[in-house]
Structures are given as structure tokens and as C-alpha cells.
Design goal:
It is a single chain. The chain is mostly helical and 96 residues long. It has a domain at 49-91. Helices cover 89% and strands 0% of the residues. The chain is built from two helices and no strands. The chain has helices at 2-15, 22-92. The termini are far apart.
Length: 96
């Protein structure tokens, strides 16, 4: 039992530096926390900006898809009219 207590005391004394004051360690912890919060806020801002950009791009993509569908429909309609017109012209030609 005495050996266990000595082990615990040695372990505890090695983790706590006697040359570093409590106030200094507290200051470093606060500084570390503040740095972490700043980094976290920066990351959250970047995430928010990317989410907004992704949403905007998604909306833009949907608009362009709809425009492409309409253009394709108009092209198909024009092709069909041209084909029918050409077919009528062939039928109206007098036989040779």
C-alpha cells in the first residue's frame, strides 16, 4: 500500500510543475480556450458560407436545367415542323 501511495504522489508531482504559478496556468488555459473559440467561429463562418453557396448553385442549376428543357422542347418542335413542311412539299410536287 505504501508503494502505491508513493507512486500516486510521484505521478501527481510530475504532472504539476512547481515553477509555473496557478495564475499563469489559468491564463494559458483561458488563452487556449479563446484561440479554440476563434478557430471554431472561423470554421463555422466558412461552413455557413459554403452552405449558402451550395444552395445558390443548386437554385441556379435548377433554373438552367429548366431553360435547357424549354430550349430542347422548342428545338424538337421546330424540327418537327420542318420535317412536316418538307414532307408536304414532297407530296405537292407533281409526278415526273
Amino acid at each position: 500500500m505504501a508503494k502505491e501511495l508513493n507512486y500516486l504522489e510521484d505521478e501527481h508531482s510530475s504532472t504539476v510543475s512547481s515553477s509555473t504559478s496557478f495564475a499563469h496556468r489559468a491564463w494559458r488555459l483561458v488563452k487556449s480556450r479563446d484561440n479554440w473559440k476563434d478557430k471554431n467561429n472561423d470554421k463555422q463562418s466558412k461552413i455557413k458560407a459554403l452552405e449558402v453557396k451550395a444552395r445558390d448553385l443548386s437554385v441556379s442549376r435548377d433554373i438552367w436545367k429548366e431553360r435547357a428543357r424549354r430550349a430542347e422542347a422548342e428545338l424538337n418542335e421546330a424540327y418537327e415542323l420542318t420535317r412536316l413542311t418538307a414532307k408536304e412539299k414532297v407530296q405537292k410536287k407533281p409526278g415526273k
